[in-house]
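Journal club prep — side note

Before the paper discussion, L.F. wants everyone to see what a predicted structure for a comparable chain looks like in token form. Sequence:
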Amino acid sequence: MTNKDDNEAVKIQGRLTVTQDIWDYERTQILRTLGIVGDINVRAWTTEALVEEIKNCIDGQKLLTGDGIQKPGQRIDNIVELAPNHPELRRAWKTFPDPVADNHGFSWGYVATELIGEQWVHIFVHELHPIEYRTVFARVPARPDWVP
């Protein structure tokens, strides 16, 4: 290789490195927004996996805004309690930025998993939320294909 060829190869490698760094940053930001934080290999997340996780969150947001939520007085037919080490429940816990959120001894607790419409939803409660200073409930949708 000539010196000119070497310089061109270095330029291309530099551009590829910058592009990969940008992709890594963008994936990190997407995962952080989805509540997935910690020691994560962002390159292990395929585009398809990211899209599926985003779709799950969109479906969950619909539930959180009231679409498909049981109305007061409406009978609850399907409710289950998952074991603390259940993989689906552990996944749901990872959606919390601070799963403990300790406030004077109060913290998040798992209540149950309920079938709302056609979607299973994990229900959590914090009796004295550190920001709201009141009881706060959180609903985390299960993966769309999950059933207890």
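L.F.'s comment for the group: The mean pLDDT is 77. Keep this in mind when we get to the figures.
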